[in-house]
């Protein structure tokens, strides 16, 4: 784990964090406006409903936050030597199997948890992570409906701010044994294999939560202890995982694949295949081995 964050030469950390605060709360205002069907701020157009021939609030919110954050970073740091990858820009610009050549890359998901956004659960988030040489070093997870802006810097720690600037730090639970732990799991991304796996793991209780960022925040607050991502026909993408990983690991938690290997980004394949495990870090290796053994009993051909 790196001890000190080294940024591009033209970027000061304090200035960067201040800009990320401003951009983060602006993104929150945009998303909350779209979720309520109101006219969004900063000149973004009000969403047409699907019935009116538009693409609906999700597409409009995605594109507005995408533009707000990427343009904001570029305008605030015009000489920074970083590239930008987002869920929206990758749809048209990413060349399959070829990583971006820049040393520094921002990876953005402007709206993680689209189904929860539409259903009004409030369990949606914005993910933004800064990657250096395939490794995430700084992450931001914004949860608009909870008024939470999480920051994580590898080697320095994680904290959460509200709109007034009040800070609180991660507070992991004291549950050490798997039989005591609370699992946080997906409400939308479920299949038979994952359901069978969860039935085989002897955790104490589980709760369903939308966005990956919201799930990791549950762990950071001590309200849950671990999360499992299991790919099937599809897999989470770099922008789903990078920022939540940073805020969890910077606080002392763990986010690895099932073989205890750290995750890599900008490898050319945007998908995170296999089984990923996020936890508060207590008995993480044991937890991974337990999950791996149960998974291979369910599907001996699953590529772990």
User: What is the radius of gyration?
Assistant: 19 Å
What strand line-up does the widest sheet have? 1-2-3-4-5-6-7
- Whole-number count of domains: 2
* CATH homolog superfamily of the largest domain: Fructose-1,6-Bisphosphatase, subunit A, domain 1
The whole-number mean of residue pLDDT values reads 90
CATH topology of the largest domain: Fructose-1,6-Bisphosphatase, Chain A, domain 1
Order of helices and strands: HHEHEHEEEEEEHEHEHEEH
**Number of β-strand runs:** 12
How would you describe the shape?
A: globular
Give the SSE map.
Layout: H1 13-35, H2 56-76, E1 82-86, H3 87-93, E2 104-112, H4 114-119, E3 125-132, E4 135-143, E5 148-153, E6 157-161, E7 167-169, E8 182-186, H5 192-200, E9 205-209, H6 212-220, E10 226-230, H7 238-250, E11 254-257, E12 275-279, H8 284-298
Helix pairs in contact: 1-2, 5-8, 6-7
Report on the architecture of this protein.
- The protein has 304 residues and is an alpha+beta fold.
- Helix content is 34%, strand content 23%.
- It has eight helices and twelve strands.
- The strands form three sheets. The protein has a seven-stranded mixed beta sheet, with helices on both faces. Strands 10-12-11 form a three-stranded antiparallel beta sheet, sandwiched between helices. Strands 8-9 form a two-stranded parallel sheet.
- A hairpin with a 2-residue loop joins strand 3 and strand 4.
- The chain is globular.
